[in-house]
Amino acid sequence: MDTKIVDVAAKAGVSPATVSRVLNRSNGVTERTRLKVMKAIEELGYHPNAAAKHLRSQRTKTIGVIAQDINSTYFTEIIKGIENMAYAQGYRVIICDAENHKEKEQEYLNLLLDRTIDGLILIVPLITDEEIIELADKGYFVAVVGRHIQHDRIPCVYTDNVKFSREVVKHLVQQGHRDIVFLNGHPDAVDSFERLEGYLKALRDHQIPFRPEFVENGHFSENGGYEALKRLVEKQLSFTAVFAANDEMALGVYRACAELGIRIPDQLAVIGVDNNRISKYIQPTLSTVNQPKYTMGAILVEKFIDQMNENQFENKRVFVVDSELIVRESSLFTVGKKSGPGNK
Amino acid sequence: MDTKIVDVAAKAGVSPATVSRVLNRSNGVTERTRLKVMKAIEELGYHPNAAAKHLRSQRTKTIGVIAQDINSTYFTEIIKGIENMAYAQGYRVIICDAENHKEKEQEYLNLLLDRTIDGLILIVPLITDEEIIELADKGYFVAVVGRHIQHDRIPCVYTDNVKFSREVVKHLVQQGHRDIVFLNGHPDAVDSFERLEGYLKALRDHQIPFRPEFVENGHFSENGGYEALKRLVEKQLSFTAVFAANDEMALGVYRACAELGIRIPDQLAVIGVDNNRISKYIQPTLSTVNQPKYTMGAILVEKFIDQMNENQFENKRVFVVDSELIVRESSLFTVGKKSGPGNK
DNA sequence: TTGAAAGCGCTAACAT
DNA sequence: ATGTTAGCGCTTTCAA
Prior knowledge:
The structure is a homodimer. By secondary structure, chain A is of the alpha/beta class. Chain A has three domains: about 5-55, lambda repressor-like DNA-binding domains (434 Repressor (Amino-terminal Domain), Orthogonal Bundle); about 60-160 and about 295-320, Response regulator (Rossmann fold, 3-Layer(aba) Sandwich), CATH 3.40.50; about 160-290, Response regulator (Rossmann fold, 3-Layer(aba) Sandwich), CATH 3.40.50. Chain A has twelve helices and twelve strands. Chain A has helices at about 5-10, 15-25, 30-45, 50-55, 75-90, 100-115, 130-135, 160-175, 190-205, 220-235, 245-260, 295-310, and strands at about 60-65, 90-95, 120-125, 140-145, 155-160, 180-185, 215, 240-245, 270, 290, 320, 325. The first copy, chain A, has a six-stranded parallel β-sheet with strand order 2-1-3-4-5-11, with helices on both faces. In chain A, strands 7-6-8-9 form a four-stranded parallel β-sheet, with helices on both faces. The radius of gyration of chain A is 26 Å and the shape is elongated. Chains A and B meet through helix 4, helix 5, strand 2 and helix 6 of A and helix 4, helix 5, strand 2 and helix 6 of B. Chain B binds a DNA duplex through helix 2 and helix 4. Chains A, B: One of its GO terms (molecular function) is DNA-binding transcription factor activity. Chains A, B: This is LacI family transcriptional regulator. Chains A, B: InterPro entries: HTH_LacI (IPR000843), LacI/GalR-like_sensor (IPR046335), Lambda_DNA-bd_dom_sf (IPR010982), Peripla_BP_I (IPR028082). Chains A, B: Keywords: DNA-binding, Transcription, Transcription regulation. Chains A, B: It holds the Pfam family LacI.
C-alpha cells in the first residue's frame, strides 16, 4: 500500500529513474531490465502516487466536466461521449453535478484554479460567456458544449438551434397549424434565444404574423411548462400547437392538458426538444428534436485534448452538428380524424 | 496563475509557514497578520496547488463514487445525497460512470490505489464482495450502497428487499391475484436474490404454492423484461400479475403487453421497483417501490467521512432504510370494472 | 506568534 | 542504457 518507487528500484536492483522510465516512456530501457522492473512492481503491488506525479509533471491528465444537472439524459449522454473518448486518450474525467446552481458551478471552477484538472468542459452552464472567456484569457483550458463562445482558445460544439426550430414550426404548419405558441426556456440562455429566433424566422417563412402574447416563459422545467400553459389558457388565447423549447416543459404541458381536459394532439399539438427518454414512453408519444449528444461530447473532447497537448492549434475549433426532428404522435392527427386543428 | 505560497509570503511580509497556517487552521495567527496574508492572497489571485497539498498532507479530501450507470435516477439521486453531504463536510466527490461494465469499475479502482481519492463508495457495483473486502483489508476506505457486506470496516446502506417484496406480493394478493409472476434481475445480484426471497416468503404467507416456471430472468433491463414476458406467454402460462424486480423491466413488460394486446391492469397487473421518474408518466401509471435514495447517499457518506477522520469507530456501520410501496394504476382494477383478474 | 527547514514521491536534466 | 540529484509547492515539526 505504501510502497514507493525507491522500494521497487531496490527490489529490481535498479535506480528510481529507471523504474520511472519503465512506467512512462518505455524507450531507453533494455527489455531485460524492463522485465525485472515489471516483476518487482507486480510483486510489491506498487501503484505510483498520483499527487507526486501531478506535482512533478505539472499536469494531471484529468478533465473536469460541469453538467447543469446529471438527472437528465441530455447531460449524461454527452458525458458518456466525453468520458469514453477521453479514456481512450489516457485522460481521466471528473464529473461535476451543478444541480442547476450557479454557485455550485463556481465551486467547481476551483478544480481548474488549484490545478486538480488540466482542463474544464462546461455543458451549457449558467456561468456567463464573459466569465468563461476570462478563464481562457488567464491561460486555463476551457471548452463548452451546447453553446458558442467567440474566443480563439475555446473549443465549442453545438447544434444549430435556429435551423431545427424552423423545421419544427414548418412541420406544424404542414399539419395545418397557424396559431403556434412558443414556450421559452431561461430567458437569458443562448439556447432559448436562438430557438425563439428560429420560431420567429419560421413564422416569417410562412407569412404568419408574430403575436408576442404567444411566447411564454417556462424556464426549461416541467413545472415551468405546466404553469406557462395554464397562463396561456387563462388569457383566453386560441392556439392549436405548442412548440416547447425542451421536453421537460412539454411534459408540463401534458400535465396541464390532462387537468384541463385538452386532448393531445387533436385539440393541441405538442413538440419538445431533447429526445428525453420519457418522450417515447409518454402517451401520446412526444414529437421532439434529437441532438447527437454522445457524438457531441466525443468530438469536443478529442479536439480539446489535442489542444492541451499542443498537437494542434486553431484550425478547427467550432463544431456544429445536425439535429433531427422526430415526429411522433403528439404532433400528428389521429388516423380517422377528419377535423383540422383547434376543434375544441 | 502560477503564484505560489512563497509569493504570497513575500508580498505579505511573512513566512510561507504563516500563509499556510492562515489557509488551514486559523488559530496561532494574529488577526493582524491574518488580514495581511488574506490581502496578499486576494491581490495575487492565489490558489493553493492541490497536488502539492495532497502530496504533503497524504490525503486529498476527495471521495470517489462508482455508479453502475449514471443514466438512471436511482444512481443520480443517491449521488446527489452523497455529494451535498460530502461538500458540507469539506470533501470533494468524483463521480465515475461504470456504464455497466465491470472492467470500467476496475479501472476506477485505480483512483483509490494511486491515492487520488481517500475513499471509495460503490453504488451496487458488479465487483464482488470478495474484491471489495480485499481492498478494505489492505487498509483502503470503501463503502457500499444498496448492498450489505460483512466486514467491520465497510459502511453499508440498503433497504430491506425481503420486506418490501413481501408487501408488493401482499398488495397483489389483496387485489385478488394468486398467479403472480416474478421477474428477476441479474441472477447473481444480491438485490435479485433478496427480492426473490421476499416473493417466496410472501407466497408462503398467503398459502400460494410456488411454481418455478413463474420466475423469469430479466437482467434488470428494459429489454430483458420485454423478452421475459414474451417467454412466459409463449409457455402458455396463465398468470394475472407481474412483480418486476425493477421499473426498467416493468417498462419492458409494458412494451410486450402493448404488442400482444394485453391490457394493463385489467388483464395483467404490473408492479416495479425504484420509482423511476418514467413510472409516473407512463400509461397506466406504474405501481412501484420507492427507496429514499437521496437520504441513503447522505447517511452513508456522513458515516464514511467520520470513519476516515477516525472520529468514530465501529458503533454504527450498517444502515437499513425503509422503502414504501407506491400504488398507482398498474396494479388497481379500473373503477367500474366488476370482473376479477385474469379475465382475458 | 512566527520562521527555518525538512521532506512528501515522483520526474527529468545531466552525468556516467 | 542507467544512475544521481534537484526540485515540483506545500505542511509541519522544531526552534526562536
